[in-house]
Amino acid sequence: ITGRPRVTQQADSLVLTLSAATTLLIAGLSPVAEYCMHFARMLGFHIQVCEHRDAWLAEFDARTMLNSGVEMIRCFPARHLEQHGCPAHTAVLSLTHDARIDDLTLVEACHTSAFYIGALGSQSTSERRRVRLAEMGELSREQLARISAPVGMALGSKTPPEIALAIMADIVRVKNGV
To answer: How many CB atoms are located within 10 Å of the residue 47 CB?
Structure first.
């Protein structure tokens, strides 16, 4: 999916294959998003955050974000994805718990080649979202199936750091082809 650097031998030469760093695009700030950024930074991901809500931007410490190498995109997440898309080495997370933001972001993410698309929510919330997205009629069954929701590995996570750990573990699992 995103590939890792590798060296292969072909006859009497070596071939070095490089790939772009894995990108984590977070659609909307939240406590879980902040922990995902922390884990993603430790894992060597390029981190982008799309946020348009002034209240969340005001709460978030911009100095921390700049010092951590997070790229802030001040834009409605769905609009950013619609205008710019994202490459195959990107995982898209919609973590706001706000259907007005998450639903549109997921629709646009499904139109990209992102290798992972995830949305926060319980099993019942995720099922209601699937129904809403299906009723919109913009996504095929295959596209809807690309959405990991509830997002993350089933670890019984309850707190924001545990939820973020489960999410990032699942992204790494998919990235590594497991």
So the answer is: 23
Q: Kindly state the tokens that stand for 17.
A: 């294959």
How many angstroms separate the CA atoms of 90 and 25, rounded?
7
Q: Give the mean pLDDT per block of 10 residues along the chain (178 residues).
A: 65 76 94 94 94 85 63 95 96 94 96 97 94 93 96 94 97 95
CA distance 98 to 123: 15
Helix (H, G, I), strand (E, B) or coil at 68: coil
Structure pTM?
A: 0.87
**What's the chain's length in residues?**
178
Using N-to-C axis directions, what is the helix angle for 123-136 and 99-110, rounded to 10°? Answer: 60
Q: Hey, CA dihedral for 52, 57, 59, 61, is it positive or negative?
A: positive
In three-state secondary structure terms, 36 is helix
* DSSP, res 52: -
Looking at residue 6, what is its pLDDT? 66
Q: How far apart are CA 24 and CA 44, in angstroms?
A: 10
* Cα-only R_g, the chain: 17
> Cα-Cα-Cα-Cα dihedral of 76, 78, 80, 85, to 10°?
170
